[in-house]
Every structure is written in structure tokens, then in C-alpha cells.
Design brief:
The protein has 8 helices and 2 strands; from the N terminus they run H-H-H-H-H-E-H-E-H-H. With 211 residues, the protein is mostly helical. One of its GO terms (molecular function) is ATP binding. Pfam families: Seryl_tRNA_N (PF02403).
Length: 211
């Protein structure tokens, strides 16, 4: 998620980036308008809080009660406007790098570099799960009973191969100065929102835990 301060100061650049990703640049205007309303309510709330503190200092009970009621109403509006700002902000994608070619879809992607040439075979390809089942290292039938379709058990030499590849990758990256990390298996919804994941169909892939 982009920093709102960055959008305020670079709105035209952000609009171009949004347009380059085939989205409506007016999304940026929606964000700026929501941000403007939020800041207006924030200013009003801060002013009323000062008035409330002054009334308390003066021991003006009647004035304090009046300010308290108005302040509560403003704080509700402030919270609502903040939520609207966040929802609008979540729809803004990350801005592509200046050296990225603009295209309408993946068909216009540009090959930057490649190594070797694709091998050609005189037979049809098999999907990996079919090969795995034939080799005895994948079991989709039993996995479907436990987890549903599109899942499989990896077993025997398949497990050893999988772990060997992971270990090789860890050793290679560690030598390059990277720090190995195993993150928690769960993540808070607001963290997913911050990554721009939920606004683009991410909720369809979520597994929700109820406590």
C-alpha cells in the first residue's frame, strides 16, 4: 500500500502509474478527496479537544457537556472518514518502475533476457501430478478425501527431493548474505490489506480461523 503522503506530493506520477496498470487514474482523485475530508475532521476534532480541555481547566461544566456531545459526534465522523480513506487507498496499486514496459496484458511483455533454448520433444507433456502418481511420489486420491480437490500428498522420494531443493536454495542464498527466516503461518487481515492483497481477490484464497 502506498504512503498517503507520497500520493499527496506526487499525485500526477501516481496517476500515470495507475493508468499504466490499466486502471482508472480517477482512483487517485477519490483517495485525495477522502484524505481531504479525513484531515478536515481531524482538525475539527483537535480543536474541540482543546476547547474541552480549556473548559475543564476553567471548571465550566455546562460548556464542557456541550463540547463533549459535539466532540463525540465528530469523532464518529472522523473514524468513518478514516475508514473511507483506507478503503480508497487500498485500491491504488504499487507504481511500476520507470524501466518497465507498459502493456495492456501479458501478451505485450518484453523478454529481458533468457538462457539457453527451450527443449523440443516428440511427445506430449504430462502434468506434474500425473507424473508424480506414476512415480509413486504423489497421491491425489487420498488427499482429496481429506482436503478436497486440487490437493495432493507428496510422499517418499518426492518429500526428500522437495526438502533437498529447499535446503539447496537456503544454502545458496545464505552464502549471498540473505538471512533465512521462517515466518508465522498466520497473518492478520490488516497486514494482508497493507500488501494490497485483499482488494484483488485475495479473500477467495483465505482460510479463516475462528477462535
Amino acid at each position: 500500500m502506498l504512503d498517503i503522503k507520497y500520493i499527496r506530493e506526487n499525485s500526477e506520477e501516481v496517476k500515470r502509474g495507475v493508468a499504466d496498470k490499466q486502471l482508472d487514474p480517477k482512483l487517485v482523485d477519490v483517495v485525495l478527496e477522502a484524505d481531504k475530508k479525513w484531515r478536515e475532521f481531524l482538525q475539527k476534532v483537535e480543536e474541540f479537544r482543546k476547547e474541552r480541555n480549556l473548559a475543564a481547566k476553567e471548571k465550566n461544566i455546562e460548556k464542557g457537556k456541550k463540547i463533549k456531545g459535539e466532540l463525540q459526534s465528530l469523532e464518529i465522523q472522523l473514524k468513518k472518514s478514516e475508514q473511507q480513506q483506507k478503503e480508497a487507498l487500498a485500491k491504488i496499486p504499487n507504481i511500476p518502475s520507470a524501466d518497465v514496459k507498459v502493456g495492456k496484458d501479458e501478451s505485450e511483455n518484453e523478454i529481458v533476457r533468457k538462457w539457453g533454448e527451450p527443449r523440443k520433444f516428440d511427445f506430449g507433456f504430462k502434468p506434474f501430478w500425473q507424473l508424480g502418481e506414476e512415480l509413486g511420489i504423489i497421491d491425489t486420491e487420498r488427499a482429496a478425501k481429506v482436503s478436497g480437490t486440487r490437493f495432493f500428498y507428496l510422499k517418499d522420494d518426492g518429500v526428500l527431493l522437495d526438502q533437498s531443493i529447499v535446503q539447496f536454495a537456503l544454502e545458496t542464498l545464505t552464502k549471498e548474505g540473505f538471512t533465512p527466516i521462517i515466518p508465522p503461518v498466520l497473518i492478520k487481515k490488516e497486514m494482508m490489506a497493507g500488501m494490497g492483497y485483499l482488494e484483488h481477490g485475495g479473500e477467495e484464497d483465505m482460510y479463516v480461523l475462528l477462535f
